[in-house]
Fold:
Amino acid sequence: MNSDLLIAVIITLVGASTPILIAALGELVVEKSGVLNLGVEGMMLIGAVVAFAVTYHTGNHWLAILAAALAATASSMIFAFLTLTLSANQVATGLALTIFGTGFSALFGQAYTGRPIAIFDSVFPDELEQHPVWRVVFDHSPLVFFSLFMVIAIWWFLQKTRAGLILRAVGENDLSAHSIGYSVIGVRYAAVAFGGAMAGIAGSCFPLLLTPQWAERLTAGRGWIALALVVFAAWKPFRLLAGAYLFGLVMAIELYTKASGSTGILPSEFWAALPYLATIVVLVLISLRRSQNSAAPACLGKPFLPTQ
Amino acid sequence: MPLRLEKRAEPSKAMLYLTPVAAVLLTALVGTIVFSLIGYNGLVAVREIFLTPLTNPLKWQDLAVKSAPLIIIAVGLAVCYRANVWNIGAEGQYVLGGIAGTGVALLTRDMSGPWILPLMIAAGMAGGMAWAFIPALLRTRLKVNEILTSLMLTYVAIQLLNYLVLGPWKDPMGFGFPQTRMFTADQMLPRVVPGTIIHLGAPIAIVVALVMWFLMSRSVFGYQVKVVGSAPYAARYGGFSVNRTIWMVLLTSGALAGLAGVLEAAGPFGRLVPSFPTNYGFTAIIVAFLGRLHPIGIVFAGLALSIVVVGGEVAQTTTGLPPAAVGIFQAMMLFFLLASDVLVRYRVRWRSPVTAEAAA
Structure:
């Protein structure tokens, strides 16, 4: 393997990992507050179509990312209203959000089929990216640096700030947090909104970073893999980083075996199924290591009913 | 807020049955407004989607054909959801049902006899069961979340299907098309209404719903599912094994999704093609909820959703509404249903100053 190919694989790996990492970071915060939002895939698709449309019409990638975040946040508020205000079942509502996002993106994306947009590439000057080592460091989209920054920011927020402590308290013991005087529902609304924004940005990675062509369901289940990663990472941001890059590696292998034309003794469909099989394997491994799902926030998925 | 929610002593039966109807009506209403706002003729679109399949007798057979797999899958999912087991991978189990049934069809290509079709159906059910076996095993042995495993297996199932129809099972006389051989007459479901496309799947769906209704309301199995779902600790205390229940509900729903798959393969499709996964497995989730997780409710909900599916196709040709719009309608229905659920458990009251003070 020559160094050019190695660099190309690393850059592909980083690109493929980024949307999963961003979406999983958002969901991590949501789940830390005690809410399980299964609508990640749907919110990502909404972010993807909005980012595509805004880039197509304005050519401004930053505006596209902002719009994607806002649109996905808006959709997450449907989920928040149903599950938090009306205490509807979180699993069913999350599924409804994914079905909604899938339909929404297909409906609005249809007009953009076959219309390419420009990739949101590295913003550093080309001179910096001459040397192979510097290319590996700098030749990434700002979205990649954003995802890495957010790993640290979320770790710091959850572990080192008072607001993070309150958020964790709400997720671990909602009744106690309520009795001390914190607004459980308010904190959870904020967490769901944040998760929505992150899922939207994650969705924007698909048209801006990976495939600058519109295709229906272009997120291809990555939102679900992000959900699995949160479990894999035991709700810890840095482990999420490791997990996302592991999946990036699996997906980079898939892409390069496909591109090279020779898929070895295994059919190409096997490689296409590999990320999903890997997700299952990872979930199995993690459960073997932990006796119980003790790392999960205690109130995860349960509605908050203070009067009962 | 001037409105106040007051918990009902018991869930309202009237609301339980009225809210699904309200959800469908609200979807039609809001759908009209939303689709008008984004530049379609909303009124015509909604009329085509919700009414044309009912008023045009030519579409009735489509309703029967499309509601059958929805009902069969949803009845199985409802059993899972009652037990608080979240199988969302019915689409994959459906695909495996189709694959297993087709496997038998390809093996029995040169044979004839009335035993072939029942064998295919049995294989299809076993295929769906096998696919549900994996999340069941992982959940009961290792406590791996069945939501993620069952969904991941759906993607794997679709790749398996692609592999088979593009590779070993490809029709050698198919001019290179990715498809298996056409099934023989003995391998196809018989039509039950002459002159229509309504096949044996429709009566099977009704029988499945009736059998599951009986099982859920009259058998120990049904009781066990409900107790495990609503009060897992009480279930353990009462001697019901939670793991055994998880096994039973996942295998039941897998078998039913597989049954729907093989019936589709041997019915409308007549062979396996890459477009075999038609989203029935996901739409059935909505059917299960809209039918209130009750087999008979699901029959009506399955009909309602098949109206939307058939109507969506009508609207596509007459008003240019994209096929994806149907997904939005389906999601809206579920949103409205979940939102109106609050009326089942709570009573909405105007907050009067006196009671507000009393409450404070």
Chain A touches chain B through 48 residues (CB under 8 Å). Chain A has one domain: 3-289. Residues 162 and 168 of chain A are 10 Å apart (CA to CA).
